[in-house]
């Protein structure tokens, strides 16, 4: 049985005061979650997460990392720096990084390797645009995204990644993939993982992301290959994030 994971993606939101209120709200309501829980936060707030979340059931992580270990890379943050602040996860290849920062499949594959090397669990994001879905390209696009990552990964490291299927047209739009649409892509992804390491493919968590909310979480999370959620907007309100955790 795969343990489910509910991970918040705060994106570029937050302040010390707002985060304190949000984290307090999550901690106060979380009790003993049946699933793994994490928040992926802007780098300046790693220290705050370490101070507020150590000893709680909530893990924390980043939203990107450099492929370099150190050196003259102005503005970049390394995996070791994330580890220094107790991060266990890092989002890699989010569609906003791919589209606004030109991150290619090859770079995302490299970042996945850097995360593993640093001892972080990469949450590798894949997903098609609306035009790609409407022209029947979903499996080709998403397949190419995951294949690039698998091509750069040692077979023995397949079980060190988390995959997040996030259809671009569902991110922040209020439009969600139907449970069956998501399940079909998740099953395809697991088949691809199995070509690299069949045993690991059965244990890799594949999250769904894209307008997952308290009112649609349960039906998505009951699909056989949906192992959790990567939650944007709804992770910024403690009540909504907790409701999704309770839907597991
Ligand atoms: P959303 O974002 O839940 O606001 O759609 C998800 C994501 O981008 O990870």
Kindly describe this structure.
The protein is an alpha/beta fold and 248 residues long. The chain has one domain: Aldolase class I (TIM Barrel). The protein contains 11 helices and 8 strands. An 8-stranded parallel beta barrel has the order 1-2-3-4-5-6-7-8, surrounded by 6 helices. Helix 10 (214-221) links the parallel strand 7 (206-209) and strand 8. Helix 5 crosses helix 7 (138-151) and helix 10 (214-221) packs parallel to helix 11. The two termini are 14 Å apart. 44% of the residues are buried. Bound molecules: 2-phosphoglycolic acid (PGA). 2-phosphoglycolic acid binds at residues 9, 166, 171-172, 209-212, 230-234.
Q: What is the string of SSEs from the N terminus onward?
A: EHEHEHEHHEHHEHHEHEH
Q: What kind of sheet is the major sheet? A: 8 strands, parallel, barrel
- The CATH class, by name, is Alpha Beta
Counted by DSSP, the helix tally is 11
Rough outline: globular
Number of strands: 8
Give the termini separation: 14 Å
Short description:
By secondary structure, the chain is an alpha/beta fold. It has helices spanning 16-30, 46-53, 79-84, 95-100, 105-117, 130-134, 138-151, 179-196, 198-201, 214-221, 238-247; strands at 5-9, 36-40, 58-62, 89-92, 121-126, 162-165, 206-209, 228-231. The radius of gyration is 17 Å and the shape is globular.
